[in-house]
Design brief:
This protein is α/β, with parallel strands linked by helices. Helices cover 26% and strands 23% of the residues. It is built from six helices and eleven strands. The strands form two sheets. Strands 3-4-2-1-5-6-7-11-8 form a nine-stranded mixed beta sheet, with helices on both faces. Strand 3 and strand 4 form a beta hairpin. Helix 1 packs parallel to helix 4 and helix 2 runs parallel beside helix 3. The radius of gyration is 19 Å and the shape is globular. The N and C termini lie far apart (56 Å). Nucleotidase that shows phosphatase activity on nucleoside 5'-monophosphates. Its EC number is 3.1.3.5. Pfam families: SurE.
């Protein structure tokens, strides 16, 4: 198997090394793992692409490249330049430092990389490691992802629907709970949750030169999101899996919108 991997934490991020291990196990001894990751951290860029300026790419070693761009840029570079001789069988993005559950999914460059691959008709999985009090002090905060990552990816490849003929192909968002690997309770499939009463905001600071700057701040990550949702499953000790598409249409509102807005005269 030929696997392309990327992330949004950057080429030197510890989570990328975890993903390389996962990908190597999935690819097998005769497979190939290719890395095309951002040269610098790209957290929070979502599905951004560098449409208005070029992206420099550098080969750092065998099958290992760094690109000065977003995770989606890296996937484009991987598909159309680095692997121009043949598409990968699978694209993996992560393992992100911190969760990409609930509303975080809308901002995530990790998910943006997987989404770009899905738009090219390729199987893609985003993987993220929840951080919390139960794993922050471990020698390896990525222990749950490292131990359970390959089995989770293999289960998705072997059992999950992929809808290969759909215009907007399915891809999967996986989050590992903030627990030691031995305490992970299993895997649950659910929908994207929503953390109420918390959101991103800004914190103003004044520099020594008198200039005013704003730091973006996230909200609490331990807010329950309700039964059957990703963040709740993580808080309950489970690996969460959410099937996703790039189609942003609110299908549940289409009929109501038609009734309210369309002209009924012939």
């Amino acid at each position: 198997m030929r696997i392309l991997i990327t992330n949004d934490d950057g080429i030197n991020a510890p989570g990328l090394q975890v993903l390389e291990e996962i990908a190597a196990e999935i690819a097998g001894p005769s497979g190939e793992v290719w890395v095309v990751a951002p040269a610098f951290e790209q957290s929070g860029v979502a599905h951004c692409i560098s449409y208005t300026h070029p992206t420099m790419i550098a080969e750092l070693g065998p099958r290992r490249f760094a690109a000065e761009g977003s995770p989606a840029d890296c996937v484009l570079a991987g598909l159309h330049d680095v692997l121009s001789d043949g598409a990968p069988d699978l694209v993996l993005s992560g393992v992100n430092r911190g969760n990409n559950a609930a509303e975080n999914a809308m901002y995530s460059g990790t998910i943006g990389g997987a989404m770009e691959a899905a738009l090219h008709g390729l199987p893609a999985i985003a993987l993220s490691q929840y951080y919390g009090t139960a794993n922050l002090r471990l020698d390896d905060p990525f222990e749950a992802a490292r131990r359970h990552g390959a089995a989770t990816v293999r289960r998705l490849l072997d059992r999950a629907p992929w809808d290969n003929e759909a215009d907007y192909q399915l891809f999967y968002n996986v989050n590992f709970p903030a627990l030691p690997a031995a305490e992970v309770r299993g895997l649950k499939v659910g929908r994207q949750g929503f953390r109420r009463e918390t959101a991103f905001g800004v914190e103003p600071h004044v520099s020594p030169s008198g200039r005013r700057f704003l730091w973006i701040r996230g909200g609490r990550q331990d807010i329950p999101t309700g039964p059957g949702t990703d963040a709740q499953d993580n808080l309950d000790g489970y690996i969460s899996v959410v099937p996703m598409r790039a189609d942003l249409t609110a299908h549940d509102a289409l009929d109501r919108a038609r009734s309210a807005l369309e002209d009924t005269a012939g």
